[in-house]
Amino acid sequence: MSRKISYREAMREAMHEALTNDPRVFLMGEDVGRYGGTYAFSKGFLEEFGPERIRDTPLSELGFVGAGIGAALGGLRPIVEVMTVNFSLLALDQIVNSAALFRHMSGGQFSVPLVIRMCTGAGRQLAAQHSHSLEGWYAHIPGIKVLAPATIEDARGMLAPALADPDPVVIFEHCQLFNVEGELPDDWNVDISSAKVRRQGKDVALITYGGSLPKALAAAEILAAQGIDSEVLDLRVLRPLDSASIAAAVAKCRRVVVIDENWKSGGLAAEVVARIMEHAFWELDAPVARVCSEEVPVPYAKHLEEAALPQADKIVAAVRGLLGKE
Amino acid sequence: MAKKSNAANKVEHRAPPPPSGAVPWKKDFAHALLLDMLRIRRMEEKSAELYGAGKIRGFLHLYIGEEAVAVGALHALGPEDNVVATYREHGHALMRGMPMDAIMAEMYGKREGCARGRGGSMHLFDAQTRLFGGNAIVGGGLPLAVGLGLAAKMQNEDRLTACFFGDGAVAEGAFHEALNLAALWKLPVLFCCENNLYGMGTAIERAESQTDLVAKAAAYNLPALSADGMDIVAVHETMQEAVATVRQGKGPAFVEFRTYRFRAHSMFDAELYRDKEEVEAWKARGPIHTFTARLKAQKKLSEKEFLALDARAQAEVEAAVAFAEAGSWEPVEDLLKDVLTPAEATP
After folding, report:
1. Which end of chain B is more exposed for a tag (fewer CB within 10 A), N or C?
2. Is the ipTM of this complex over 0.90?
3. Which of B83, B118, B154, B180 would you mutate first to test chain A, the one with the most A CBs within 10 A?
4. With a CB-CB cutoff of 8 Å, which residues 68-87 of chain A face chain B?
5. Contacts for B26 with CB less than 8 Å, ≥ 6 apart
6. A181-185/A2-6 β-pairing
7. Nearest to A289 by CA among A255, A242, A326
8. Do residues A17 and A46 make contact, with C-beta atoms less than 8 angstroms apart?
């Protein structure tokens, strides 16, 4: 059995469940309470759980993310919502210099069981300061885990294990996914440690995550109509990366395109490609290709924004290039 | 148009007269606090020596001159309280009850140190005495203290969080965000500013448009006090007053301790930014010898008793050094340990 819900509803259910089941859990962030959540993820929560646990904050990203770390150290299980990854840069010091380091720097005395959720990505004509995709930066940091739920199941299921995790977990929710609807099976079972094959194929492996997953799946359908059978691997967990699943996809298909909304230079796709070199180089029949964002701040105008981002047609072209079918 | 003077930006760097007057404490208590100041002083002097000998490396920030602040302030807290400190925190760690052995071994980088050699001088942590670092990002501890205060309040714990930081941190956004949040949410946090007049080499009037830090803190609608940080009596009594205010549960408070660092900022500092005369004048109001003189004048301390206290402090330091010397090195195989929490330690 399954039921149809949206990504937004799935995430809302996950938070509702966490708040209901564990009195240590509370939600803190800008406009999570009276406004109902910037993206309506927490609509009705204030009335149900009260202002102590659904805590509206001032515009103080550094302050309230740091307060989340302190609250975690003090015995609570905070969910800190940062409105977008763009604003998380104001809190980067606390995430990188405190949350990620305390366990190690204290010789194992203090863990920081904190969940930070934020919206990421472009595609809504919000221009350069609201369109960053910086998951790759966060995935660079030892001491934190980085998740990118791209499906209804993951939106519903990743929060609970993230909250149960004793270390800081950063969850990136791509803004283009919020209204996506899908079937949630009754027996969903979600981990926060592995990549997952979303489409079986044998000719080429499309390795991706987050907002680029629907684009990769769309490209796979176009390619199927052309007689090219694509496997789509959803990374899901950006740190630690599931190298074994990446290597398995390479071994199976022998041709790979990595799709990532980060900029190409030093982005997450670069790390995936390097892992392939380290773990699966001899399995390759062709050089690995990448489809990433163009090296430009994301522009406002619709046609320019679309041109700046990974798209299904770019993925199709990259695959055909690998197969010598340009 | 009348010319406005910028009086707020003027700071008196000349030392005021030394602390004086009767010490209103019983002999035992006065001796205990004097001993604690001596323990810090002797530990720091030895640390400087060990740095010269190459036993301690990295950055080393000494607390010499500022001892009255950690001793006077932390004697006003209980074991249930939280403390957040800076990279100049050896004294705070000792006052929280961390064994000097563990502090010294950590500075040596040994396995027997509080963080098994992962933190060093700037990152002393102790879960047992609720010391949450050892933070070496200026201002970084303030938002953490807000969160610790929030956790205490939400869990109905009778627990205060004292957050120490220097005057340099007052220019950071974290200071302003943290005071605002703590006051807005009425959290049991006591912000303790150790104003030693310099953020590394930059004098406070070169960094702050408003050098009156009490006025600055009070702008966040919380009680703000100031005390002579060289006078342990003033430090302790002001801290007690501030602690009592915070324990009423109506919100945070701020205390400025006006103090002075006798040594360089770190071991790499040539001290080109301040006059020797200024340093010497402040040394004349040093917290240990002025307190000693006051106690002697009141016949609450004899020279013999002073020497006995000092000998105890020095013996503790020697034992800590021996402990650190005898310590072992963490095996390199354990390098990656505790980046994340091991499954068996998960609560």
Report:
1. N
2. yes
3. B154
4. 68-76, 78
5. none
6. antiparallel
7. A255
8. no
